[in-house]
Each structure stands twice: as C-alpha cells, then as structure tokens.
Amino acid sequence: MKDYYSILEIHQNAGEKLIKSQYRKLATLYHPDKNPENVNKFIDLNEAYRTLMNPDSRQLYDLDLKEEGDFKKKQSENKAASYRTRLRDGGNINIEIDFNDDFVNRLKGTEEEDGPAIEKTVSLQRYIKCPDCGGQGREKGTLVSVCPQCKGLGKVKSRDTGVDKICRNCNGYGDIFLYKCKTCGGMARIKKTEEIKLQFDIGELLVLRKTDSVRADNHFISFENNANRKFIVFKGKGDEGVFGGKNGDLTVLVKIDEDILNKKKRNNGFFTRLFSKRI
Length: 279
Fold this sequence. Notes:
- The structure is a single chain.
- By secondary structure, this protein is α+β, with helices and mostly antiparallel strands.
- 30% of the residues lie in helices and 23% in strands.
- It contains eight helices and ten strands.
C-alpha cells in the first residue's frame, strides 16, 4: 500500500492548505516535461492529492493505512493476525423524515401539552450481528486456519496488473474454516427490519444555520448544509460492526417546508417559548 503522506512529504494531520502547496511544489518539480525519468513519481503525486483532498476517500485511506500498520506490527511480533480480526465498521444509513404535519399541529396549538419534542417511529432495515454465531461467521467449535494463499492478508496481488485484489480462496477474510454459519453464510451479519423510536428536540429541528447553536450529547448531533437541508445524526444506530468494528450512524434528512418556517417566525415566538420550557 502506498503511503500518500510520505509521497507528498507531509504529516498525517496536514490540512488542505498544506496538501495543496506541497502538491503544487512537488508536481512542478517532478512534471514529466522537466523530469521525464520520474513519471511514476508524478503519477503517485496526483493519486495522493486526489485521495487526500476528498474527505471521504481520505477517511477510508487513513483507516486502511492504520490497519496495515497494525497488521505489520503484529507480524513483527510473530503473532497471528487474520484479516478477519481487523476492524469491520458498520455502514451508515440515510433516511428522510417529513415533519410538516407535526409543525402544523403545533402552530395550531393542538400539541403544546406534548412538550418541546417530536417522537417518530420508523421502520429501519439494517445489518445486525448474526445472533447464531455471535458475529464470528462460523459454526461454533469449528477450527480456523490462516488462508495459505494470502497469508492472512485477505488480499493478493494480481499477476497481470500488480494491483491488490480480494483473495478468492478466503473471500477477503484472511482465514478459512470448514463450516460457515448457516444463518449468515459466513458474513457475520444478517439484515433485519426493526421498528425504532427516534426523538427530536424542536430547538434542534429549527436551527437555521450551521453557525447557530448546535448542541451535541450522547444521543445525537445535528448540523446543516444550508437553510432548508438539515441533517440529524444518531450515533451508532446504523449497521452494526463485526470483528471489533464500530456501529455505523443513522442520518436523518429533516423535511420542513419553508412556509412552515416562515409561519413559525411570525407566530410571536411560540416555538421559542415552547423550547425554553425544557431548558
């Protein structure tokens, strides 16, 4: 695995400004027109720049880099380190919830007694740890051995391209066993539909700008891209992680029409008074 930080000659905590300046300096130095014998270096610079300047791809790359470092460290300590034992984080889930009817009722004053919160029950389909194998992917008591083809890495280099690809012998897990769990088929997770209750504070639903007061607690945080696209993130309520991985998050796109918000502003601070009762 290439070390993009070393390629750009920066530390792993470098910001976008430093990444840009380093890329421009090194790209000028190693441009094929000036340095034709180092074309591969120029290609690596562009690959590193594209990866690290995208927040999503940088996050995934940092995770892979850490996992590879941990794996090499375990190898140096002569410890068995199956790819299967590496972090397997659960995926994030995105849904949209319409709050228009709830706010219309509150504008009419028909739900004031319910307090400054709205509760929603949603039907959520997500992956959970397999209850039969406990998230191990194998039948209880079956023997496990390191995959002889990938040596526990879960990946092998293609003979044609030299690029890492998933090991077909172990399906990328790094270890093999005789009997897979019959319930999950060795995947350690199963998909389940659940009815879950989510509670939303009115004060958070009505935050209009990212610069407004946005509170975070042990249940969820909220933020917003612009005036009419608000997201509330419920930590750990996405897909469940396996093999030591953490749970994913559940992100709710809040749908409230602009005319509802305008009525709220003209309603003599009704929502502000309602929210202040809880503070």
